[in-house]
Amino acid sequence: EDQVTQSPEALRLQEGESSSLNCSYTVSGLRGLFWYRQDPGKGPEFLFTLYSAGEEKEKERLKATLTKKESFLHITAPKPEDSATYLCAVQGATRGADGLTFGKGTHLIIQP
Amino acid sequence: GAVVSQHPSRVICKSGTSVKIECRSLDFQATTMFWYRQFPKQSLMLMATSNEGSKATYEQGVEKDKFLINHASLTLSTLTVTSAHPEDSSFYICSVGLAGPDTQYFGPGTRLTVL
Questions:
Q1: Over the stretch A45-65, which tens digit does the pLDDT of each residue have?
Q2: Distances (CA, A) of B39 to A93, B67, B106, B112
Q3: What per-residue confidence (pLDDT) applies to A3?
C-alpha cells in the first residue's frame, strides 16, 4: 500500500526566513510525485510533478527535489502570501487508473 | 493545465436526503475524472475513478450504492450522495487527469453538511 508522510505538520516562519518541507513516501513503482498548494476551503492548486530521483523543479520562491525515499519543498525568502497548506502526493504502479495517494500536508504560516 | 469547476460550492441538507454534485472540465475532454473526500485536517482520500461511458471504479471501503457516479460526457461527472447522514459531511473534490502518469487538476471543492 502506498504511503505518504509529511513533516512538519505545521510550520511558522518569519517573512524572508527560508526553510524546507519534507515528504517521505513508500510506493510500489513510483510513477510520479506531486506537490500541491491548498488554501482554506479551496481545491488543491498544482505546483510540481517529479518523476525520478535527482529531478528538481523551480517556480518563483519554491523548489522541489526528489530522492528514492523522499521529496523536499524548499521555500526561499517566503512572503505572507505563501501561507497555505502544502500537499504531497504519489502515483504508484499498483493503484489503478492513476489515482493519487496524499499526505496530510504541512500547514505553513509566514508572518510579516 | 485543465480548468475544473464544481457545483454547488456549498450544500446543506437534511439527513436521509440525496445530494448531487457536478464536476465539469471546462477546457479539456476528460475520459477519466476522480472523486476525493477530505475531512478536516486529514488527507484527501480517493473515493472513486469516474470513466466516461462506463461504470466507475470505487476504492476499497467506499459504498458504490451510496455514492453514485455518472460520467455521461467527456466534460461532466456527477457524484450523488444517497440517503446522506451526518457522517457524510465532508469536503468533496473532483479532479481531471491527463493520460498516463501525469498531473491531476482539481476543482474548487464542494462543502457538504448533513444535518
A1: 999 999 999 999 999 999 999
A2: 26, 16, 16, 11
A3: 92
Report the alpha-carbon angle B94-A32-B1, nearest 5. Answer: 50
DSSP state of B1: -
The DSSP code for A4 is E
Distance of alpha carbon A67 from its chain centroid, rounded? 13
A104 Cβ under 8 Å from any chain B Cβ: yes
- The full length of chain A comes to 112
Which residues contact residue B99 at a Cβ distance below 8 angstroms, ignoring those fewer than 6 apart?
Answer: none
Rounded Cα distance, B25 and B32, in Å: 10
Whether residue B81 contacts residue B66, with contact meaning beta carbons closer than 8 Å, is answered with yes
Q: Do A31 and B101 touch (CB under 8 A)?
A: yes
Count interface pairs A-B at CB distance under 8 A: 69
| DSSP per-residue string spanning A78-102 | --GGG-EEEEEEEEESSSGGG--EE
What is the predicted pLDDT for the residue at A39? 96
Read off the C-alpha cell for B13.
441538507
Q: How far apart, in whole angstroms, are the C-alpha atoms of residue A54 and residue A30?
A: 14
For B24-33, how does the pLDDT look when each residue is reduced to its tens digit (9 = 90+)? 999 888 888 9
pLDDT bin (cut points 50, 70, 90) of residue B97 is confident
